[in-house]
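UDP-glucoronosyl / UDP-glucosyl transferase structure dump, as promised
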Amino acid sequence: MGGPNGAEGAPQRVMLIAWGSRGDIQPVAALATHLKHIGREVLVFATPPSTDLLESHGVPFVAAEESIAGFVEQLFGEVDLSDRSLSGLMKLAQFGRQYINSAEYVDLQRSDVKRAFEAAQEFNPDVLLVPNIVYGAYVAIAEALRVPVMTFDLLINHPTPDYPLFQMTVGRVPRWLNSSLHRFKGFLYPKMWRAKFSAAREIVGIDPTRYPDGTKYKIWPHDFPQVCAAPTTIFSQPTGWPKEKIVSGSWVLREDTAFDPPESLVSFLTKKPVYIGFGSMKSNAEFRQRLSTLAIGALYEAGTPGVLLGGWAGLSREALDTSTPRGEALYEWAQSNIYETHSCPHDWLFPQCSVIVHHGGAGTFAAALRSGRPSVVCAMQGDQPFHGSLTEARGLGRYLGIVGSPSVTEGTVGKAILDMKGNEAVNQKTAQVGGLVRAEDGVARTVDFIDTVVRNHSFPWPTSAQEVAK
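structure tokens r here:
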């Protein structure tokens, strides 16, 4: 496995599993393109539609049958994410549980494990990288092929007293309780996902309960090497993490060709507008109307021009209810004060805006940090409250809460925008932090980590690297 493109023993054939929206796939594309650049062979197994990003950068990939856009469409098509009432939350939980446990979804997951396994058998990787949550079961492929494996996350996802569970806000519980909450998750997580993990092991033909060395199969927290692709400027190496688990820095995709923006956008950006967008958040028509009204109404209340990124949520002035006086007024104001675009590279756009209003997803959070601009975070779900609360705790912006809650209104968002635009201390700090984050090289550090793992880590199954070492 050694050769001219790396130190002796460095893996030359790297396979990655990627699941999620563009914000999840883009970091994988960054690592894959870097690996290609240094002469390694790469294959990515990923969920569409964001596989178009891999294709555009010449990264070899195999598309999963599961479409993340289809997943989101089905999961949230009948649910209003901005309804934070008890009945709304219960409806969301029930709908999600029914979908994930449906025969159709289970069959799709089994089919994709088989598809990925067949691709891996043909590619014959020296090492496999697997996302730690939904697709963690794909670790079984590495065990079946007897190759090293490591998992990756875009956030802190291993027990430490330094941070709470990524679904929580920072500072909500005492520091000493954080590790206990992680351990409690380690009790619940296997109960939720054991069937999926066991099915994957069955499909690839390995013991569903034991590793080859006789130790008990453990879903989480696992003992495999793990990398957290998050900014080291914000997340120093967490207390209590073993040496085979690291924070690498973000995996940032360096575009090969410069983005060619329309002249109308370039001209609009001379106004130093506010960016506002909610990424891959998507739901029904009522959700689209509520979120569009919130976004445009906040800019209206702040009296500032804005760039409105439609995204999967479909934010647009066309979604406003113009049958009401308020909706009609917002629509008229938006025509001359808001620039609408469906998508735009964050690393190009954010530095040219004055404030970044976003949902707090891992990819957007990292891009906002790199931009050197203050954030206003209005979260929806998952890791977003964690990133939003961390933004405020570090003095890099404001976290207003969950969209649909009383703390997130057109008025409160508008006020936060003005506060951030005029706060010199926050702007100085975000500029300083942005420079430090941009200087990180997460992909290079990750490659060094991969090489070290392959050469030195002992897995509970025999690997070719271990046999060579003997």
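Residues 1-5 have pLDDT under 50 and may be disordered.
lmk if u need the other ones
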